Amino acid sequence: MARALARHWGALVVFGAAALVPIVVRDAYFLDSLVLILLWGALSAAWNVAGGYAGQVSIGHASFFGIGAYSAALLGARWQQSPWLGMLVGIALSLAAGAAIGYLSNRLKGPYFALSTIAFSQVLLIVASRWRAFTSGSEGIPVPFRPGFATLGLGHVAWVYLALAVAVLYWGIQVWLEHSRFGYRLAGVREDEDAAQALGIPARRLKVIAVTASAALTSVCGTLWAQYVGFVDPFYVFSVDLSVRFALNTIIGGMGTALGPFLGSILITSLETYLRATLSGVKSGFTGIYLIVYGVVLILVVRFVPDGLAGVAGRLRARRARAHA
Amino acid sequence: MSATALLSLERVTKRFGGLTAVREVSVEVRAGDLLGIIGPNGAGKTTLFNVIAGYYRADEGRVVFDGHDITGRPAHAIAGLGLTRTFQIVKPFGNLSVLDNVMIGALTRLASTREARAEAERVIAVCGLGPHAVARARALPLGLRKRLEVARALATRPRLLLLDEVMAGLNPTELGGMIDLVRRLHADGLTLVVIEHIMAAMMRLAQRIVMLHHGEKIAEGTPREIASDRRVIDAYLGEEFVLAEA
Amino acid sequence: MDPARRLGRAQIDVFAQLGVSTILLGGIYALIAVGLTLIFGIMRVVNFAHGEFLMLGMYLGFWAFTLLSMDPWFVLFVSIPLFFGIGVLTYVLVMKGVIHASHNVQIFTTVGLSTALQNTALVLWSGDFHTVRPWHALRPIRMLGTAFNLSQVVAFVIALTLTVLLFAFMRFTHTGRVMRATAQDRDAAILMGIDTDRVYRITFALGIAAVGAAGVLVSPLYAVYPTAGLQFVLLSYVVVVLGGLGDMVGALIGSLIVAAVEVAGSYWFGTAWKEIFYFLLFIGVLVFRPAGLFGQRGAENLGV
After folding, report:
1. pTM of structure
2. Is the C or the N end of chain B the one with fewer CB within 10 Å?
3. Nearest by CB to A302, which of C109, C126, C273?
């Protein structure tokens, strides 16, 4: 127990702080940022399952986010169904789409897998934005707000705890991946598929499972996000920028580490919030500027800190341990 | 075909386009054997391993392991039956520690990570990798990476282990250590098929040797028989220095 | 955009029209894809930001026309050296450091570059759609039962000329031969004393100059906006994969195939859905013919 605490003190600090904040702070703007940090962190953790743990780098995860968002929004707006049902539908659709993408990962390597995931998200974007009769096309869909837990019409504080629960769950899934038989074998597949197969590991099946699971986890957060924000815009939910964001948070925080996606989300979401506050007066609008920063940060991080914040922390700890020894 | 064969290749042929890399090769390996496969570069040795271990599909012929026809089965399924291999160009799980590398091998037979860790520590000790257990695999020098390759395969508790040039590129000390390791494994009852380019090492190690040349089996026999075989000498003619070491 | 629709079906011969449209479009796609396949073939880097350089070329065409009333055809004289310079700069600042890095590092470096460039355009010039309408974009030409506008024809001719020039450069100049040698065997090239850094710099700059020129040429044909490059980058990857990676002749043929799919798709299903055909074709090609139509070493070997 003590060892587990020692190993996960970082997670304890992050999630503990998130749990305490709503007790102390009542500022809606601040709580809003916290919900987004947790949701983006959970989404990045979902991406990490495929990208970091299985080594299948997708730049089309917005596909699954959008599927989750649209499933709940359409069911809610057109048939007055509960978003929880929409979440289940989104999971089912994402499992199918994720399995298809996972299958692609067995045919395509590296950049080609990444390209095919972008292409997939673009196909969904075109369908969502052009199929006016069903999806309302490029106008998007407002998600009706109906108070109550069954309809996910919650206040800020409740949203913090819901997002926190999801974040902790996803963090736990990643920790499990680091310590379970499945996770070890998946790491083998990530590092070298041929060698993994020589050890009896069904590499292709493991990759499909990881990508499919990652898709479903992403979809769940897509549903939550749509209910939280209250509007689904096809050009946002299926955008390449969004897919890049999941990857960016994870890369900054540390790919293949459980806490990395959340550290990255804290940094990037805070940066975004800060830039939004400072630059809101600028004429040309703020959206582009923080995305320019994203792009530049991404280039610099993969070049100079490829193992991210978690990696840096790990190295510092190792150095300190060596100094003590 | 003898009833006691653990592995038998029956007229196995593998072609790449117009090139026949392996032509109608038949080999039998009995339980407890230590069989060597020699041949000049491009003789088809590694291709043969790739066919046996399920990385290539044989165009003709059959591969039978322990009574199962494994021809065309996926590599992981073949490894699951207890036939595993190492790679000539080592393929360590580079970003993982030596211990984790070997654990992943151990998890092939074991369900619990705790047991797998204990097993991995044991195998690491056997292979003389103890002092490097926490090192990142990619940071190891080649000699130790070759050992890791063997250790990881051993951790799967194979009944037949294919070693692909685990001695190439080693310095004399490392080479001696590797020969000792292979001998010890064999003495403990493991069946091995060893590809080696260095005849000298093979002469000291193998009970029986198969010689491949241009994809065909041109000789089979004890090291002594092979060393005096005219065809073998002809095939290695350009590489007399290798024989001279023997 | 599509004259076949504008003029109505009665006035034109559908199949001749589709054929001519395919060839015109294919020539332009070839110029885009040739730059990509050059960079890929020689540097082994997949440039996710390729489309953004096309987009910048389109903006150059747009601004030169709007502010200076400069015809896109003449802008080319500025754009080619300018984009060559941008290519050199991008190589030195961004690509040089990751040329020997892992695929993931290269992917995210060029994705980061793509994001940064797209949004620089967004911040500087807003997300509005712009159009360039020089006189030749409005001049229909009718011939043998087909109709198209002069911009398309000239863009095609220029694109083809530039592509051929690039071929000639690769085949007949010393630098071109050195570049091809490097593409074949990087290590041998280094051993032979080839300055690979210089080769990569020139390669990247040429690829960017080609795609920048393509951007200028298509500015009268397509709407100009910050994410205009995305559809082109994906389709040029289809072209490159179809033709075999790094194969310039293959890229020409691949361009015609992609153009044919697009033209036929937008004719029968409407232009609103035409992009979906690129993407489906793209995924289909990657899944079923990853080695390209001509069986060259292709996508499946890339990760090995």
Report:
1. 0.87
2. N
3. C109
